[in-house]
Amino acid sequence: MQDPVAGLISFVIMLYIALLFVRQFAAESERYDDVLGMIFRATDPVVSPVQNTLPSGNAHLAPALVLAALLLLQGILIGSIPYAIKQFAGKLLQLYVLIIIIITAFREYHTNPIASFCQRIVSPVRALAAGVSQHVPTVNLLSVAGLVVVHSMVVVVLNGLMVEAFDDSAPFLDAFIGSGAEPGSLLLILNLTQFFTYAIIANALLSWVSPNPLNPIVQLLTLIALPIMEPIRRVIPPLGGAIDISPIIAILALQFFYGIVFNLLTG
Predict the structure, then answer these.
(1) Cα 136 from chain centroid?
(2) Which of the 8 DSSP states describes residue 183?
(3) Are residues 250 and 204 part of one domain?
(4) Backbone angles phi, psi at 153, to 5 degrees
(5) Within this chain, do residues 88 and 166 fall inside the same structural domain, yes or no?
(6) Residue 205 lies inside a defined structural domain of this protein
């Protein structure tokens, strides 16, 4: 069982790694933005000292250097640097695929500042795919396929570096799908169904308290949840005009989809 103090430190490190990763895509002028400003203020205490030691022309590299240092520290804390990098790579894969799903499936994503900023994160990947095809759906599909291949190759290398490396005759297949308790690239993407489940639940709960519709987080949750629930509402309208069961049906449908695909991939 992990020591609670070590677990808390590990959580804080992972939180800072996530914040630093996002900060790399933010312009300095955006430190006065409501949301991004919080990220700048949270990470300045660890970034500013590094920026002050770098030449002025390289100051923009400070967040990436601090992120790398924290990733190494996380590896030391959990006893395996390759495993810490593997965890980070898995979260990156999920983040990138999630953003691509949102900008593909939800046409109004550009109206939300958070979703719009996230599009900036995946732009380099989509730009590479656009060199093969200019057809937007193809670009998104190629982007996801490329991310899956790169992630699988990274996992194969990291598994080979780990002390507890898998005795495996098909390392790429296991990295691609997964083995045992270690999800591969495809299972990590499949696990994103949980994110959509949480988004639907959060959106349903917020509807009870009449939140500010101009809040970017509220807008994002609505942007994600409504396109999933609206087709259900057209078939099953609110009972008595007041009781909306579309969130429950949507969640059950997502769990059913997860179970079917999980069995197909692991069966």
Answers:
(1) 21
(2) E
(3) yes
(4) -65, -40
(5) yes
(6) yes
Indicate whether 12 and 26 sit together in one domain: yes
Tokens of 30: 């955006």
Name the residue with higher pLDDT: 71 or 57: 71
Helix (H, G, I), strand (E, B), or coil: what is residue 192? helix
Residue with tokens 């079917």: 260
- Give the H or E element holding residue 158: helix 136-161
Choosing from 79, 112, 133, the residue where a domain stops is: 79
Domain span at residue 229 reads: 191-267
Q: State the Cα–Cα distance between residues 96 and 101, nearest whole angstrom.
A: 9
Count other C-beta atoms under 10 Å from residue 206's C-beta: 17
Residues 2 and 65 in one domain: yes
Counting Cα atoms < 13 Å in the Cβ hemisphere of 101 gives 16
The pTM of this model reads 0.88
Is the confidence at residue 134, as pLDDT, over 70?
yes
Domains contained in the chain, number = 3
Residue 179 confidence (pLDDT) above 80: no
Q: Has residue 120 got a pLDDT over 70?
A: yes
Distance CA 15, CA 32 (A): 21
